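We now fix the convention by which a protein and its fold are recorded. The integers have meaning only within a learned vocabulary of local backbone shapes. The record below shows the convention in full.
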Amino acid sequence: MNWITNYVRPRINSIFSRRETPDNLWSKCDECGTMLFHRELSSNLNVCTQCGHHMAITARDRFSALFDGGIFTEVAVPAPTADPLHFRDQKKYPERMKAAQKKTGEKEAMLVAEGEIGRTPIVAACQDFSFMGGSMGMYVGNAIIAAAERAVALKRPLILFSAAGGARMQEGILSLMQMPRTTVAVQMLKEAGLPYIVVLTHPTTGGVTASYAMLGDVHISEPNALICFAGPRVIEQTIREKLPEGFQRAEYLLDHGMLDRVTPRTEMRDELITITRMLLGLPPAVKGDLPSPEAVEKAEAEAKPDTPEADDKK
């Protein structure tokens, strides 16, 4: 044994056998602590395969799973005035915005898109909690109005996914003004006779819950989502009483008549297709890569031979 065997060879082997291992291949479930491989977790829509805990999911990933073939077209949203109050805490508001945009890769806290689910055309809006807590600012108000106007113009239902910590404090009273603005947008849908379906995800709190998140024709929630105006801790400190177990969670609200459904994320798409077509008075969707029922009926009508009876009916 010499220095070549003892030092040089192991050194060479360590250099050439070294592999860069990404640090994002595994995620730990916050509920049960299971380590989940990123591909397995992604294919299950960020739902733990062991305990069913629903982890956060971005608006873009949610739309990719919702729309047919993951195909959708973004709807333009008017940009509001940047930093209207010149707000500053530890950082300036524009600096916080740039940091959030860099972190998420999105322009703002809400994404609006149009496309088809189960061959049913819809307009959808989704809040991204990773963008400044999905806080409701002027852009979010503009996004909901843009979504409602687009739905009315195309005569399509609107499906909204809410996830927010409340109003955006950096915009002060201007953020609170989005509550009546979005209420008017929802009223536009109701006057046009179009369905408005809200999917409440964890968490949906504050002024969002006090406005557009609870004005739907149908309210669906993901399991164990926190849905409230003021949080449980604030209420306990105010009334100085112990709250019931699971207070303000989706299952508790379902039992007390605040929700219509609690549906796992992996089943949400089929549930939305069924409810949307039911509200529109359409027949059930055909699953698989098949033409829609409307297309089948049209093809059958065109394929019927011309007969005297058919001419009389015409």
Remarks:
- The mean pLDDT is 89.
